[in-house]
Amino acid sequence: MCEERMTGTDTAPPGARRADTRRPYRPRPAEARQAVWQAVCERCRATHTPCDTEALADALLVTSELTTNAILHGGGITDFRVDVTGPGVRVSVSDRSAELPVARPTTDRQGRFTPGGRGWPIVCRLCRDVRVADLPSGGKCITAVVPLS
Length: 149
Description:
This protein is of the alpha+beta class. It has a single domain (29-147), classed as Histidine kinase-like ATPase, C-terminal domain (Heat Shock Protein 90), CATH 3.30.565.10. Helices cover 32% and strands 21% of the residues. The protein is built from 3 helices and 4 strands; from the N terminus they run H-H-E-E-H-E-E. It has helices at 29-47, 53-73, 119-126, and strands spanning 77-85, 88-95, 129-134, 140-147. The chain has a 4-stranded antiparallel beta sheet with strand order 1-2-4-3, covered by helices on one side. The radius of gyration is 16 Å and the shape is globular. Mean pLDDT is 84; it is low at 1-20.
């Protein structure tokens, strides 16, 4: 998914359009959330349907988790794509690490709460479909589909 150019909404936020659309897009998490928000809202306007604000919030949370985790644990974002397809929004984030995402325990051996480790379970819970694929050039691509209704 991340190696091929997805059809649909361009992933660049307003004012950041690229002349060469084959180049990877490496947004900060806030820019990625803006791209998802824009893609979903454009779809709602085009189909003359109201946007489900809870579903949009879920899509934005998933986008935040995937992009932040790529930065913190994956060596940085190497590509980002968003596409509204059918009843959902597909978000793909590529990073430099081939390591699979994992959920860490919420407590240590003494029973004390530990920070972090909750992003991957959130992504898996909110998405209809989550796929992790190795990239030919190294690293991985995580593609998640968040239902919009």
